[in-house]
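ping. complex inputs:
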Amino acid sequence: MRRAGMASNLQQDLFVDAPRTPPIGALEAMRLGNFREAIKLYKQLLKQQNLAEWREGLAQAYAARASQLAAKGMYEEAQIVLDNTAAPDGTVRDPLLYVQCLIKRGQHGKAAEHALKYVGTSKVPPAQASRLAEVTAALSLTAPWPSHAATEKHTERGRWFEQAMAARQALTAWLEGKPLAEIDDLLAHISLRSDFKAVRLILKALITGPLDPDRARQLMQAVPVQSPFAPLRLAVEAALSQPSLEFLASGIQSSGPQQAFVLQLHGLSDSGSHSLAELLKAESGGPSSLFTFLLKQAETKPGGELRSACLNLLPRLPDRLARFEKTFGPLSAFDKNRVLALAAEARQDWGGAGRHWSQAAQSLETLETPQARLQAGVIYRHLAELADRHEEVAGAGDDPAVTYLVRSRRSDPDHLPTVLKLVVKYRAARERENWDCLVEEALQRFPKTAAVLLHALEWARERKDLGRALDFAHELFALDPINASLRQGIIDLRILRARDMIQAKRFELALQELAEAKKVEQPQAPSVSLRLNEALLGLRLAQDTDAEVRLRAAMDLAGGGIPGWFLASLEDALMKGGGSGSFLRRELIAAQKVPPTKQAILCISAAADGEAARQHSALVARLIFRIRGWLLKGSGLDWSVKEFQPLAEILEGAEAYQVLGAYAKLGRKRDPDEPLWLLYWLMARTKGDRAKLSYREAMELAEHAAESENFHDVKLIGDFLDSGDDFEDPPATPSRMTEQILEMIDACLRGLPPEQIRQLVATSGKARAVKVVANRLKNSEVGEIFPAAAIRSLANEIVESVLSKRDMPRSLRELPPW
Amino acid sequence: MVTSDPFTTLGVDEHAGDEEIKRRYLALVRAFPPDRDPERFQRYRAAFEALSDERTRLEATLLQIHAAALSRLKQQLLASAKPFSARASKATVAALLSEGADQACSARGSTQERSAQT
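pong. complex structure:
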């Protein structure tokens, strides 16, 4: 006890003599915005010593915490926290926030009462003084007149109350409809230097407005938009103009009182049942209240507008359909289905929406008027869109969207987007006959239409009808003569036709095609493929002495060096039966003396990725084979996997696995965590044959795919592993898969302990024991997964492992001791 | 509560034809040019595009819930307005002043004031 008393005294002494250390923890908590912690720390400090600066710190922490709570909409809690800062006279640390909390809680009287405490005092933080004065002025006009106001005369506070009384009297006079002159006299008592200046300006504007709206607007501009009188100012400004639908619409969303003010001033707010105010009130109550209001109106004053307004509310209130029909008479089959379809859409019942839209469209089809046909077309198009997005929307055929598009086209054959959508659908579904018919029809119905011509061009190219493709391309070019890719498209088509002529040994015609292509080419933007083909044909025909010079020029245009000769060789190979093969081969070999660069290699991969090259992959493979040594040298360059990807695809397509392996090996060294390097390495090792992957390799790859966040990588790996098109569920990791298999085997063999197997072997022979184990496995979950041969082999290994007292069969790393 | 729709935005009937819609749109654009009120212009433009073609007009009429009839009802009631024929109620003015006081208190948290308090 004595020791404890001594310690306490010592502690007190220490505190008395200790220098005032800054409360670091509390300050840090304040800095971090952890005001609750700051309050706790300051309270602890104050328990130790009641220092003024710590009291101040605690008050600051309370105020900051209250602000934090108010920002979250917790006004009651904020008010309670601020109460902790209250002085004996009831004033608090953050009066504006306190007043706001009271207003938010609907305690307007208390808010006014609290705000009035600060009038004529110096208890307001300087930064809040002017705003609080204005807020107090505004609130004082709404609250009952304070009883103590009369006693406070000849003081600053007393003078403030005099002004408040003047403002109150003027406002009351206006509200009570007193004559304008009387109000004007009262306004003269409000000083323009007082906090009630805005009241004087607004009331002056209100009495000036009917005679001189411009002057009234001018007066309004003197009331700042941050002022507490701003909403009243805006309401007066709105009242100066005739109220519009736009104002009513914005009023519903923003400020009800402003709207009410305008309606009252325009005499639109009498309490009669037909008033606009009543309608707006019903509207703000939601569709149900509006519907009831309109229906009531219709009972006394039936009209088409009321019916139409109610009809458009029905999709939100489908249960009121019967009530509607009772008042306005039965709906047509079309209207009823439309209402039900929109209602189904609103509740995301896509099956129901499809059914009702379909019935609505069918009821329109029976009408056979042009308007009804257009309406049916619109609804069928909508149905096609719904069917594309939601599987629940039923329809005939494999693709309901196609069925609906067909119906839409039948109802409205002049709607171009429907035709184009259908063309795309037929093309994707490989419905050749429908595609052919539709394109031909579209060409007739929508002649010289760019969108149709574009589709027709693609269609003709796919049919290998180069003549028609060229016609469409020229028609398109006439519509869009500055389209550079179209220009190149025409050149490419001419080159394709020239190749056909060369194969048919009709060299004159081939020259003609290239000459035609030349007419389209722009001299300032020469086409590499055209120049190469011209020179190559010249070389082949040996008529042109400049052909080699022109070939070299074209080759330079294609990038020179290996990329240039590669492209030239490719174009020559595409001509087939090339006469310049040996010359090009020599040049290609000679160019390989220059060491590879990334840019040159990427140029080659771009050349080998062209449309024609993709269609003749064997030719590309042959050319890649010729430059494989040069490409191998390029593997030492610092490739990122993204840069290498296009080349990898070319190498894989050309089956240049040695080159692919060399790049992948060095890539893996540089970036061992990159899954695609592993993929390319394994592709090279297995020569693209997934079946040659070991179980471990496949699992490692699957694991990488599962861990990768890049969908493209996952897809590439998935494609190689042939594990389905979609990777919705990540592939199981090897450990998980092995575990699952082992668990299955364990469960299956639980009733057959190793001793029993040994006994079986001893009594019936090994073959019999293997058969028993195999039968058990076959009849279990394992049998559903593995083929019979694998089951037999597994059973054999299990029996052998039991006999040799090994822990596990060779094919499995771990086997639980079942 | 009722969704704003192109008919209400342009202030035209759902049976209005191309000419009427175009005339109304041009009048609105003249009254509110894009350089003065770009947002309002965008609204008018979008509404005009939604109604400029017979088929899109049908889409707006058939596939959406529109408030054209309700707007016309409101318009009819608005037509009876008599400016400054009456005074506002005490409750409305009190509500406007309370709204203003609330807004002014909310602006209390501006950076400037907070730094001044600190």
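The radius of gyration of chain B is 21 Å.
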